[in-house]
């Protein structure tokens, strides 16, 4: 199989398999939504396996084996960095739009099942969720996120980099990653909710831009750590921490387009700034 055919095969399976799981999840709803969305995260990994006939590094180019010697700090950055970035993004958002900050955590209260009586105050529940996002949850999420990272950062980014250059490869592969989420944004209000100007199409465009920025960060960690497990851990940490800013939203908010997650138009400014800095950083081009 030629390299072009491998690429086309990868894209077909990554998108076809992922979108099928998303469609089934939205159709069945309930617990199946999360189960099938989690299963869909392995579609890019499956695409690599089918297109290359193996997942071994010598066949795919994916660097699997973790080696902590001299690069441990990058795994720590992958573990804790996304949470710190999420807090910075949320703080920036609420600084710009202080009227959207709700210290009573009415949004968090609204997410609880009707009739739920907590044995402790809401701030304690919020603190528990934040501690979880900074401790063990990133490692649990990593086991799912590696399915995406093996495809996007492990295979697709190097493939496109060879043809488009470093900057082009990073931006296009990140945009492809964002487009992979489109059915959820289009049909389920994923990431941005509803009711924002141009919905859902502006959300679909913003997701591509935000994923391009986040992809630069994840690729940087992959390059520095030398193993796909570093961006997988960071991806897991992103998923664990992304909702921290939402703990302080007003209950009546239906749109996350502006923020406060790292993928919002306003709240994402620190993420975009970090991505641009890494992209222009000497020695990273």
Describe the structure.
With 285 residues, the chain is mainly alpha-helical. 68% of the residues lie in helices and 0% in strands. It is built from 12 helices and no strands. The model has no long low-confidence stretch (mean pLDDT 95).
Write the layout of secondary structure elements.
Elements (H helix, E strand, L loop, with lengths): L2 H26 L2 H10 L2 H10 L4 H4 L11 H25 L9 H6 L10 H13 L2 H43 L2 H7 L12 H25 L3 H13 L27 H12 L5
Helix pairs in contact: 1-2, 1-3, 1-9, 3-8, 5-10, 5-11, 8-10, 8-11, 10-11, 10-12
Structural class per helix/strand content? mainly alpha
* 3D shape: globular
Q: Name the helicity range.
A: 55-70%
Radius of gyration: 19 Å
Strand content: under 5%
**Residue-averaged pLDDT, rounded?**
95
Our measurement of the CA-to-CA distance between the termini, rounded to an integer number of angstroms, reads 31 Å
Give a short account of the largest sheet: none
Short description, anyone?
By secondary structure, this protein is mainly α. Helices cover 68% and strands 0% of the residues.
Task: Write a concise keyword list for the protein shown above.
single chain, mainly alpha, 12 helices
